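Entry 14. Structure prediction run on the chain below.
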Amino acid sequence: MNKTLSIIIPVFNSEKTIGRTLESLKSLSAKSRQSAEVIIIDDGSTDRSVEIVMSWEGELPLLQVVLVRQKNMGTSVARNTGLMRARGEWIFFLDADDELAFDPVPFIEQHADASCLAFSVRFCKNMRRRGMLRPVLLGHRNFVDVFTARNAFQPSNLIFRREFLDSLFDPSFLYLEDWLFWIQNPRVFEKMKIFPDVTSAIVHSHGANKTADRKRHGRFRRLVAEKVLSDFDMRLSSKQKNNLLIQSRIGMVQEGLKVPAGTFFLFPCSLLLYMKLLAYVLFGKSLARLDFYGS
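Output returned:
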């Protein structure tokens, strides 16, 4: 039987946080639980993550929770497994160290004609607020400008209709896979509605987040930028190409590499992105510690 919503949660060695994530699913009303499913993909955990998930059986009445176990292949493959198992018309990604902050189903029911619904995400570190990532309204005119300048959405900013999806996650990208995923799925944003005053998830930043590994994060930032440059070359404006080149150079700085001198003459480009490049070059590691999402 099809569902209205599939919430996909990849899990890898998340014994310290997965209980909090499961507790947050109580944000779903009894009515919403009947039309939703939760797909938990254990990506080869070696700790007590699976045991904790199984201990929650019966704790979320009316909500169907499916546990899928696979060998460790990374977040991209885990999310793809969830997408292939999902029976929901709408998809929502939630990480195993984050919290659902609202009930998505009423928004879906009220805006069934949309391709995606975008909300704000709140960041926390050590249980203290560290800012918000608010949604940006996208259309065919600004889509590439926005995504070459930055990764505009954390995965749990968005709920989207599965029928508008054209590409799965690229399994070769272990970091910033969501940035590439959004770029490869422009139809998701065709009929977008935004709700900047509604928080969809609380994202907890901590030392075990993938973004804490600045060197690898920088490498994949560079690789995403280079792939988009290669795949979309003839469709990109000079500004969009320069944005991607600057993204690549920021990645190099994060990797500890020296950037070509010509980097500082890449115009036209996003002014904010250019300022970020200068900040990385001038302040390096100290800025990296502040850049908790990193795009």
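Strands lie at 3-11, 36-43, 64-70, 88-93, 99-100, 116-125, 128-133, 158-161, 192-205.
Filed with the rest of this week's runs.
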